[in-house]
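Quick log. Single chain, no ligands specified.
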Amino acid sequence: MMSNDTKAFMIGSGIGSLAAAAFMIRDGEMSGSNITIFEALPLLGGSLDGGGSPDTGYTMRGGRMLTTDNYECTWELFKSIPSLEHPGKSVFDETVEFNEVMKSCSKARLIDRNRSIIDVKSMGFSMADRTELLELAAASEDKLGSTRITDWLSPEFFTTNFWYMWSTTFAFQPWHSAVEFKRYLHRFMKEFSRIETLAGVKRTVYNQYDSLVRPLVSWLKAQQVQFRKGCTVTDIVLGTGDTILVTELKTTESGTTGSIQIRPEDLVLFQNGTMTDASTFGSMTMAPEKLTKADSNGWSLWEKLATGRPEFGNPAAFNSSIPESNWPSFTVTLRDTVFFDKMEAMSGNKAGTGGLVTFKDSDWYMSIVLAHQPHYASQPDGVQVFWGYALHGDRVGNFVPRPMADCNGEEILRELCGHLNFDQEMTFGNANCIPCRMPYITSQFMPRAKSDRPLPVPKNSKNLAFVSQYVEIADDVVFTVEYSVRVAQMVVYQLLELNHELPAISRHDESVKVKFDAVLKAFA
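-> predicted structure:
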């Protein structure tokens, strides 16, 4: 059991660290003033970002799909975090109420090259597709090992309606890990039967930074948690011997090096790896700069720590192939309703009810989503914002003769108008499109051995834990807010020796009805 003056140090301010701090205070009864969160960047929240302004253009690297049928730890946490806008209500309360009004029911999930809405009631499977998918879903993780999805599914599978919808909903590529794909099939089996309408998808009131990060940070600050922005932890010094014990943190802040002594009773939680490392924004006239690992320190501390220590994982499994882990996104700020009016008329969905619209025949493999407006807490009347991304940003466009990764905002809008047969000047005459390049955005999906991801609390560790998308949790799925929150809760309960039960993973894949509905959908 930790002492009353135990101090906790979080390296990185992503949702995992923020959640861990909240669990320490709420369930571990730690004083917030004993918790310090280090963040190298000027903004808290890690990958859950949402910035910009109506004048400079809003920015958002990604938008996250949430459900209330999974995300057990996430919603359990946010039931205790107060809403910033509705006194007496929690973030969970306001999210549920919002989704009772804004129900997802996509009527235009896939669009073809003729701007026609594709009938996606059928998944488009052949009997061979069904057999292969069943074999993959039933295979053990030991058998799947470090294989890729393409090692299990034939080329024809990747032309089915199911693949077009599943891959763009969750951002899978054919060369990604078969283990991660299998985990998604099981974790989100309930979504299999409604993937064409996205009826199970839940949205936050605003983008996830405004709706999740800001209220959580506000609550933590009220508990006197210490935030040190612009401070980089450059080394985690370990003691000698078989026991893993952090004794010192080395830092750099405003060009000055520093040292923090860590006592045996103190805790260090490290966000190892980052999916948004080396990400860059462009503009209407400039493509995002192409950065690599050499231009950023996002992986260096994990690499240093893991050298000679296999129990700390293998970062090279995730950060060694940018061509396989990157894709671009874009955020568009509008000062009129022309585009939203056209899209709502074409799709049959009001903004916020349709989810992703994927252009199936796009060589960029482009998708867009029109969220309920306003999508930013600071967004004024008369301004609308939408987001999009492309899984094949390295390919030449259908209407713009260059890869999306090399395009500025104007060129991305030109390509989008080509697929929609919209006049660009009439539709986007006053638009501000800000593209974003993310070299490692799906790095956590890369094929990997089980040992490539460390356990949240490594064996023999007394005060060091990993909290990130790159740790090993049985049965749960990476590239979700839930994964980061779940590992945070696991780590806190284990390190503080709390006799609290962790919310169980909902095993919808063991429900007879869910299985039956999935079979019916597969044979539709």
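Residues 116 and 430 are 27 Å apart (CA to CA).
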